[in-house]
Each structure stands twice: as structure tokens, then as C-alpha cells.
Amino acid sequence: MDPLRLENQLCFPLYAAARSMVKLYTPFLNEIGLTYTQYITMMVMWEKKSVGVKALGESLYLDSGTLTPLLKKLEQNGLVSRHRSKEDERNLIVEITEKGDSLRQRALKVPEQMRKCVTLSTEDAVALYKLLNKMLDQLKN
Amino acid sequence: MDPLRLENQLCFPLYAAARSMVKLYTPFLNEIGLTYTQYITMMVMWEKKSVGVKALGESLYLDSGTLTPLLKKLEQNGLVSRHRSKEDERNLIVEITEKGDSLRQRALKVPEQMRKCVTLSTEDAVALYKLLNKMLDQLKN
DNA sequence: TAAAATTGAATTGTAGGAAATTTATTTTTT
DNA sequence: AAAAAATAAATTTCCTACAATTCAATTTTA
What's the number of domains chain A is made of? Predict the structure, then answer.
């Protein structure tokens, strides 16, 4: 059992599957003009409507180095607006726009199209979901 | 069951866990002067000793756009050498160097240190490994 | 209250990754 | 054999990610 063989790693299929998954999303997301990271950001926006960059980062496990340019791009595209909090000027508040909200309808097709591609059984999908979250819990510090 | 809620996605914990895993590797890999992608590349090199860029890309699910600069960096650091195949000048052959080979001993500490951080049970780890590979099989086209 | 510490976002620098195009080489077709 | 097609790596462009630093605003402390 060679500990440095690619086949003996848990990390490698995790890394490779994550990239393949994003790649599979890409053509569907292109149709609504989003990248994968923008898509999961919009998921939070569709739910919360208004959120600070810090809280957004905690939801997505991303920091301002990734989010700042991404949110500027979403703002350019008219999907969100950005402004400083009145109470504490350090906090930048991201708010969804009318246009961002209306994109949700078209985005509903994305998980639908993805389901057709990933044909894991429900049991497998649930098991995988639980194991990934268990692992994430251990790793996330 | 909102299909656009972050919590209802299988993709998100996959994406987040993969990034957290790489982040956890980083300090251990820093000690031997490798990034995560360089590390999995060296795993193939330690095993194969000599391999074409195309075959390397198929092993790692990476293309020349990612591998070319990465291999140049490994070459700069003296871990591999690169030269065109005599039989077919289109193929670039990557060969491990003495220095690259000797790095393997120090690299053995990495999976050892990682095991201490990821405390999934053996059953969970095996189940996760199998499910990820099953998913990867479906996605990899 | 003035100075020091903390906080939050932005910035900088480095390294992926992916898609699309380019360049060089080889193979296949006429 | 010359032209066309195919192949492999490199390059280009764009978008993440992360670490480390900077900058501004707010709290805490002396």
C-alpha cells in the first residue's frame, strides 16, 4: 500500500470530481451568463436579498480576495448593488436588484438540467451529501 | 424543497470540501516546496519516472494549459526535465530527475500528517472514496 | 479623549484551471 | 509527393482562490 500513489488518495477523486462538476455546470450556466462561483453567490442572494460581504464569505467559505472582484462583476451586470452600511462604514452590503431577482426563474432550469447528467441513485446522492458535509465539518477551519 | 438553495445542492459541499482539503495540505506541502497540483503531478512522476504530457493530463484530468506552466516550474526547481520525443517531436516527455526522486522520502510525511487531521472512520473514508469515484466516472467526459 | 488594537474590505502577488486559438509535427488522402 | 486532416503542446484570455498586506472605520484601553 504505497501512500504516495494517486490511486490510494482520498483527496484526488475529491479534487477531480469537484472540477468535473464545475465543468459540467459551465454550459448550462453560460446560458444565464453566470460562472459557477457567481451562481452559488446568487443562490445566497436569491435567499437573503441583502447580505454583508463577511456573512456571504462565511456562507460560501470564500474571502474578500475572491468575492470583491466577483461582486463587482455581478454589479456591472446589474444583478446586485453594493453600498456601505450606514451604521458601520466598514461593512459593505450587497443587495439583489430587480434584474438579479428575475434571473432566478431562468436559473431554475440549471439544477433540472444537471439532474439529467448526474445519475447517481438517490441513496448514493444522500450518502455522498452526508459524507461530504461530515468531511467539510472537519476541514473547514 | 427549493432547488436553488445552497443547502439543497450536492455540488456545493463537493466544491467546498475540495478547496478545504487543498488548504489543509498547503502548510505540509510548503515544507517540501510543492503546491497541491505539483504534488499530485509528482505522485505520477514518482511512479512512472517518465511520461508524456498527454498521458500525464489523462491521469490528472488536466490539460496542457494547466500543465505546461506547472511543468516548467517543476523543471526550474530541478525536479523534472522536459524534452521532445525522438520518435514524434510533437510529444513532450517529462522525466523525473535525481532530485525529484529523492524528494519522495520527504513527501512521505505529507499523507502521514494529513491522516492526523482527517479523522473520518475507515468505513466512511472507504465509502466516500467509492462514491466520489462513481461520481467522477459519470462526470469525467 | 488620545493612542492602540481590532475589524472588514480591498489590494497585491502567485498559482491554478478551462476554453479557444496557434504553431509545429505527423499522418492520411487524393 | 503535395494537400488536407489530425495531433500535441504551447499560448492567450478570463475567472477564480488564497496568503499577505494595506487602508479606513470602529472599539477598546490606558
Answer: 2
Residues of A in contact with B2 (CB under 8 A): 47
State how beta strands B92-96 and B50-52 pair. antiparallel
CATH number at residue B132: 1.10.10.10
Checking B121-129 for CB contacts under 8 A at 24+ apart, the result is B124/A131, B124/A134, B125/A10, B127/A127, B127/A131, B128/A10, B128/A14, B128/A128, B128/A131, B128/A132, B128/A135, B129/A10, B129/A13
| Cβ–Cβ below 8 Å for B15 and A22 | yes
In a domain, B66, yes or no: yes
Q: pLDDT for B50-66, tens place per residue?
A: 999 999 999 999 999 99
What value does the mean pLDDT take over residues A107-116?
Answer: 96
Amino acid type, A79: L
Write out the residue range of the structural domain in which residue B99 sits.
Answer: 8-139
Sheet of B50-52: strand order equals B50-52, B92-96, B80-84
Domain-embedded: residue B48: yes
Q: Tell me, what's the pLDDT at A140?
A: 76
Whether B1 maps to a domain, the answer reads no
Q: Which of B135, B138, B140 to mutate to test the interface with A (most CBs of A within 10 A)?
A: B135
